[in-house]
Amino acid sequence: PAFRAAAVLKLAQADARQGDLARARERLGQVSGADPEAVRAGALEVALLRHSGKGGEARRRLAHWQELDPTSSRLRYEAVRLGAPDPALWEHLGADPERVLDLAVESMAAGLYDDALDVLDRTYPVVGGLLTEPGAVPPQEHPEVAYYRGYCREKTGGSGRADYEAASGMSTRYVFPNRPESSVVLRRALEANPQDATAHFLLGSLFLSSGLAEDAIREWQAARGLNKELPVLHRNLGRTLLQVKGDIPGALAVFREGMASDPWNVDLYQGADQALSLLGRPAEERVAALERFPDRARLPPELLQRLALALAEQGRAQEGEALLAGRFFPREEWGTNVRQVFVELRLQEAQALARAGRGPEALALVEGLDREVPGLSFTKDGLAAFVETPRVQYAAGEIAAASGDEAAARRHWAKAAEGRDSFFRGLPWAHRAARRLGPADEADWRARLEASLAESDRFLERGTSFPGVVIHSQGLLQRELGREEEARAQFRRALLLPDQQLSHFLSRRALEGAPPFP
């Protein structure tokens, strides 16, 4: 019973498509009986009355339904078709092409292609400000609207070729096909012109939104072969190859190609960094990829932080730190804090100094991790929370030991062994520090590590906003428990998840086994 009204509406639409408007209206009466507030069915009732030449009855029923929903775009459109003035309707529809498509789809469902064409084949007023979404275009410049227009023109006996050609030349930026009807429309456009890259791209987007990754890749590869300049094409194709198909080399090739045609797309650089990390490529390649961004001065914070860390891994930590000067880094919940990046840069620099036999300089950096640095405003406060973590204290101890200061090393290891971290990610470093301090109760530590790993499993089962951090932590716990193969699998998995709190950097270092604090 709960679905009766919706089911009967579908039957009424089918009757209307067959041209039996009387039978369709009869069914709509059943819908009203089952659901007196079924405004969607009411709008179709008004349209069918109008098409049947029953204008007076259509106006009477329109008044009834508009009392229930005076804001309905479909009812407002019917009012205009019945002679009522409503200039604000066109501005309302012009503010969002999706509103036009919604109206068209409702008419198409009942076979009223002339009505659909009427709303699709208009020049709408250009709306700006707060009335529309950033980057939105008026309906007449939206490719999906143009494809639907061509399809409906064909259904009314005309030729849709000019509409399809117009759609093919429109921008696909911020266009997200999601309707079942779009599959029919786009396939028809491709029948008319198999070389239409835009139709291939949009059909691929529709397939992916339906979970059909293989079909999406096929359409996007076709679009790529026809027009490499389509915005967002390489981002979508590369992401799907990387994260759905696991084709890392293929994804990397797509990301790199996209940097030439869509150079301001941040996701291309992030994707290339992920792919290079998963392939175990040297830091030099990641630096080269990130430096392809058109303007270093306008590097988004997330890319700038990646570049700074890659430079440090290449032995250019001071260059990486210089990138942070004079920049604003917005805070993001569970994102990477710039202070974390700064601390890692300093640790990398100190490690390099210690290896070069410049112990005093390395120790000075380690002991001053939480001190303000001129020119880096974010170092005025907030560093202690990151410096006092078990991982950083363990790393500081390793650097102190490499610099020949055993007392300082033991002091840092003792802090790390205390495990002052509210999250289970700190335990592996506490364990390592305890082992460096002397004989540790391995049975006790193993029990704690296993309990922490079980806790992390429960954490993931409940759902979390920072899965990459948890997965990386699991890899560390598994490594401490001697389960190296499982650990490496988790580090790779973390690299495919969102980069939060240095999860990509730390997972990459863990995969490399970079001593002394991977």
Please give a structural write-up.
This protein has a domain at 331-512. It is 67% helix and 0% strand. The chain is built from 29 helices and no strands.
Question: What is the terminal-to-terminal distance?
Answer: 61 Å
The total count of strands amounts to 0
Largest sheet: none
- How would you state the average pLDDT, rounded? 95
Decide which structural class fits the backbone.
Answer: mainly alpha
State the share of residues found in helices, binned by percent: 55-70%
Poorly predicted regions: none
Q: From the alpha carbons, calculate the radius of gyration and give it in angstroms.
A: 31 Å
Strand content: under 5%
Number of helices: 29
SSE topology string: HHHHHHHHHHHHHHHHHHHHHHHHHHHHH
Outline: elongated
